[in-house]
């Protein structure tokens, strides 16, 4: 899976879809060298904090089948924010936000989206589309799906790989916290 997403990372080729921190580091190093391919796309990693931003398209009015419009997308830590314009000032507020790390659910990043999901989208545009999907464990909360069309295939691969890394990191942290809680409660019941 990741060998397709970021072939520049030879350390990751044998890895499964759960991206390791070594892989994430190799990925970010490779992307920093390669970031000139798309103007406006930036990636930074400081102590595991990921930051990526750039222009992508999103379905008009949030509805599939009504065309696509240009939006500025910012991934900062675990939050994806969507803006009408590039947020150069604090006063610019996001139109929509999507959290890649849910405490009560799971997030999936889909790098391959079927044309049947996107009526009235040109077949030539489908390879550039990615989807973020959240499913909450609580039955009363509906899931959420957001589609993006990247300006190029390498840009799509970059976004998918970085967001998958963030989701995997959040999942690992949550599982460790749950394991620690079980361990603490077991110690107390033995004592």
Write up this protein.
- The protein is of the alpha+beta class and 191 residues long.
- Helices cover 29% and strands 28% of the residues.
- It contains 3 helices and 8 strands.
- The chain has helices spanning 2-5, 21-34, 153-190, and strands spanning 42-46, 49-59, 68-76, 79-83, 96-99, 105-110, 129-136, 144-149.
- Helix 2 packs antiparallel against helix 3 (153-190).
- The longest helix is centred in the C-terminal third of the chain and has 38 residues, at 153-190.
What key attributes describe this structure?
29% helix; PH_domain; globular; alpha+beta; 3 helices; single chain; 8 strands; PH domain-containing protein; five-stranded antiparallel beta sheet; phosphoprotein; three-stranded antiparallel beta sheet; serine/threonine-protein kinase; 191 residues; kinase; disordered N terminus
Mind sketching the topology for me?
Elements: H1 2-5, H2 21-34, E1 42-46, E2 49-59, E3 68-76, E4 79-83, E5 96-99, E6 105-110, E7 129-136, E8 144-149, H3 153-190
